[in-house]
Every structure is written in C-alpha cells, then in structure tokens.
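Collaboration report, partner site 2.

Our partner group contributed sequences for two proteins of shared interest, and the home lab folded both. The records are reproduced in the order in which they were received, starting with the first partner submission.
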Amino acid sequence: MVLWLIPLLLLLASVAVLGVIVVRKIPQLRVMETSTDSDERTRRVKEAIILDRVARLQSEKLGRLGRAVIAGGKGAMRLGRLAVQRLYRMEQYYQKLKRAPSHAGAAVGPEAVRGMLEAAEAFAREGEPIQAEKKYIEAISHSPKCAEAYEGLGNLYFEVKQYDQAREALAFALRLSPGDASVHMSLADLDLAEGKTQAALAHLRESVEKRPHNPKYLDRYIETALLAKERKDAEKGIASLKASNPDNQKIPVFEESLSALPEAEPSQEG
C-alpha cells in the first residue's frame, strides 16, 4: 500500500503554495522606503515575521517528514497530517493578517496585549521559544506599534541564534521607539555576538545617554569600550560608574584595563 504517499503529496503541495508566497512577498517586505506610510511599513514587518516563520516551518517539517518516510509508512502518514495541518494554520493566519486593516488591533485593549507579552516572556523563561514566538506575534497582530513586542521577539530570536530575524525585529522596535535605551542595549548585544564592536559601542553610547546610572548598561559600555580600545569612552563610563556607585567592585578592574590602553591623541587644530 502507498497510502502514506498521500500526506507526503499534500505536504509538498502545501509547501509549494507557501513557497510561492514566501518567494514573491519577502523581497517586497525587505524594502521599506522612507516615503512608505507608517501603517503600511508596520503591516509589512508583521507579514515579514509571519513569512519568515512559515519558511522556517517548511524546512523543519520537510526534514522531519523525510526521516519518517525512511523509518516507515505509518509514521509518515501521521507526521504528514500534522505538518499539513500546521502549515495550513500558518497560511490561514498569514492570509488573515494580510486582509486585516492596519488598525485591526484596536479592539484589543492594552491589558490584553500586556497579558500576551507576559505569557511570551514566561514561555521564553521556560525554554519554550516556539510558544513564546507565537505570543509575541499575537501581541504584534493586536498592537502593531508596540515596540516592546518587537524587542521581545528580537531578543527571543537572539537567544536561539537566529541573528537575521533578531536584527529585523529589533531594528523595527528602534524605528518605533528611537530613544529606547533597552532596544539599543539589545542591538548592542547582537552586534557583539556578530563581532561588530564599534557598532555595539555606538548603541551603548545611546543607552548610557538615556540611562546614565544603570549599572548593567555602564558595565557593558565600559567593557565594550575597552574591547574596542576606545579610551575616551572607557574613561567616560568609569567616571559615570564612580559617580553613581563609588563602591562598585569592578571599578579597580576597569581602571587597570584602562591603564593598558594608549593615551588618546590630542586633537590637531589649526
């Protein structure tokens, strides 16, 4: 009997349809012209997040189904049905998002969105990134201009080392909330993970500018300045740390590392 081929064929058909959507839509969603309406940019980022997730789901399900086919027909039938069902739900969600007006989230109040964010954070703490991702996307669907939701989603992707998706979500969070010290901090962590020390330092300058007495931000600012051998930044950070917390035990360690850096060259004028 070849009944187990039916779910495989259904899955391949589903993947083909969704693949067309992904291939056609993602290149459009990556381009956000400055002249584009703010609500339209928001819609595009929401769609990009959904489509990225669909693409990852396709790859995951195809790999699992292939292994099940090798293992035996019954496993393939069961996994095939589950894969088709889940891909179908994601496709339906994408279509619903596409049809929804930009202000569709207005019917859900701030308290409900807060509950979604708290649920997402709880799932993330419990090591359930897929459930956390779903909750963040749900919050974004209802509150498309919630920078906190995009930041949470970006941090979630960062934790599972999906750096491209993390940067996309965090960049949009920063677009929505340009002066948010926390978002700058998250982007600095991402830049450091990718070895972009100077870019990280630029974000940390913004973070400590907004929150000059935050010990976590000051620590990271000083550490990154020392790593980048930027003496002026390191001196500034240590001075701020001394002013806000003179008993901090890291101050002597930072000063010792600072002494190893070359003196800043005087500016050339005239």
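Second partner submission, folded after the first:
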Amino acid sequence: MIHTKRILLTLIIAFIAFTSLSFADSAREIDADANDALQTFYHDVPGGQKFLEKAKAYVIFPDVNEAGFFFGGKYGEGALRVNGKTKSYHSITALSVGMQIGVENYSLIIAFTSDEALKNFLLDDDDWESDFSSKIVMAEWTTDDDDVDEVDYGTSMVGFAYDSTGMLGKLSLEGTKFERINPDD
C-alpha cells in the first residue's frame, strides 16, 4: 500500500511539473483569461468590483485546476494587477495528502488590502509559500448577501474562489506555493 501511495504521489508531482513547464500560457493568454475572469467576478460577486477598486492590488488566477485521489494537486497561472495594470505573472501550485477524490476547476482572486501585504508579496523574489497562504481569509457569499465590499474580513489578504466547475470532496493537508513566472509573449 505504501509503495502504491509513493507511486501516485510521484505521478502527481510529475504531472504538475510537466503541466507547469509544458503548457504554460503566454503573457497575452494569461492577461486575456484574467480579463474574462475579472468580468465574471464583477458579474457574479455582489460588490466585487468595488472591493477590488479599494484593494492595493490583487492577483487573479483565471483557471486553477485541482484534482485528487488520496493524493492531490492544483496548478494555475495568473496576473498580479496594481491599479488595474498587470505588474507580474505568478503560478499557484499545491500538493495535498488526505481523504480527497474528484476534479475541480475554478477562478481565484487574492486581494491585498494593505501596503504591507502587497510589499511582502512583491519583495519575495523566490516563492510566496504556504506561511502566507494560511493568512488568507477565503470570502464566502451568496447572491442574496450584501455586497462583499461592505464586509470587514479582518485581514489584509482576502481570497475569492468562483466560477467553479466539477467537484472535489476533500479533507486534506495542503501546502500552497505561489511563484513568480516569466511567460513568453
């Protein structure tokens, strides 16, 4: 059983590494997908546009793919926007172990509501690891809720996962890594 788990973990790691190296989008593709995902966010999330306009910056991952069968992983590429303009490109990668099964695709926005949170993200030339991701509060809302810009989340980093397809049920330990990338144009 342990041998099988090691093989599965190795395959998932190889898949994520292969996906990130072989199928990386160009900067134009990332920006176009980010623009589309942003319009969906504005349409689907009450007060979402106002919230992002107040934020110091946000990173938008328009297409995060996540899959798991006891071992799991996720990968996506996105754009960091400051004052509505792309400043840099980043990937999100995670490996997880635990009770999980399924496949899911979604868009993810992480908004920085303080200068310090943005500074920490921009100054880290290597990786923005799970130490920071544990400080992100994931916003929850329904179409009947008040605008998200009227909520005090009590943190300087707020995440919004939306436009989800598929289903992934899980109870797992996960380490998420954010890394700066340099896509081709």
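Feedback sent to the partner group on the second submission included the following. The longest strand covers residues 85-112. The chain has a mean pLDDT of 79.
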